[in-house]
Structures are given as structure tokens and as C-alpha cells.
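SEQUENCE-TO-STRUCTURE ENTRY
===========================
What this section holds: a protein sequence and its matching fold, both as plain text.
Question of interest: how does this chain fold, as expressed in C-alpha cells?
***
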Amino acid sequence: MLANSEKIVELARDTIEDYVTSGIRKKPDNLPAELKEKRAGVFVSIKKKGNLRGCIGTIEATRENMAEEIISNAISACSRDPRFPPVAREELDELEISVDVLGEAEEVKGKDELDPDKYGVIVQKGSRTGLLLPNLEGVDTVDTQVDIARRKAGIPAGTDYKLYRFRVERYEV
């Protein structure tokens, strides 16, 4: 668990608010060293009244540090999630933000090594990849978790694929 859990969600929230109100990606001040030094895949999830409003992330680090990963994914979650229109200024006070920091993915031999409450899952076939975070409402079985990730990847039912699992540290305030 990272020491600065409040700063992680605060960074995502401030980024979203700045971007929605001004269209500008601001550089944050006074970031904890941990966020400037560590690299990891990060998902930023936005909910409104308990319903998903945006969620974008990276499986592995793609930026210089975790702060940049959070900033980039927060902007994408509020403005580029193809399932939703961009977040409007009027919605900002109603948003719940969470940040998932992904651990390293490990290949598993079968579904018996998965647990939808404990592990996220990656389903992969060639260049097609689908990911589902752990501990999501309504995802109570391994089969449901894998099926959703498989469909996200566009992998047809009955096709062979590789399975990976990963742990996350979820930050919410």
C-alpha cells in the first residue's frame, strides 16, 4: 500500500476538475516523492451516483512515473472513454473517483487460479487483450469475470486464449 493514498485520489480528482473546467492539463505541485519515483499501470474510474461514468487505464506503466500515469488516465477517463460522453462541469460535484494501481501480471494455467474478489484478469489472444479489475459489483464468479474480459477483447467464445491475473491497490476517498 502506498503511503500517500489521499494524494493519489486527490491528484486524479484535481486533474479531472482542471481539465473539465479549463481544458488544460496542469502540472501539479508538491507531489509526494513516491508518486514521482514509482512506475505502474494505473486505472482511473469515475462513478456518478454509483454508476460507472468513465474508466481508462494502462496495464503496465507507459509514462515517466505514477503521477503522470494517473494524470493521463484521469483525463482519458473523463473525456475519452468511448462508452460515455465527456464529463460536464455540472457533474463534477457528483463524481466519485477511484484509482487502481496494478501489480505485475502473471500468467495462470487455468481459471482455478483466479478469484474475482482478489485478482484482476487479463484475457489475451494474439494482439487482442481484455482486462477486468477485481472486486467489481456484479462480478461474483470467475466465469463472469473472464467472460466480460474476453468480450472486451473481442475474442469469440470457444477460442483458446491466455489468462493472466494481477493484484491491485485500490484508492478511494
Q: What stands out?
A: The first helix runs from residue 5 to 22. The radius of gyration is 16 Å. Helices lie at 5-22, 33-37, 66-79, 142-153.
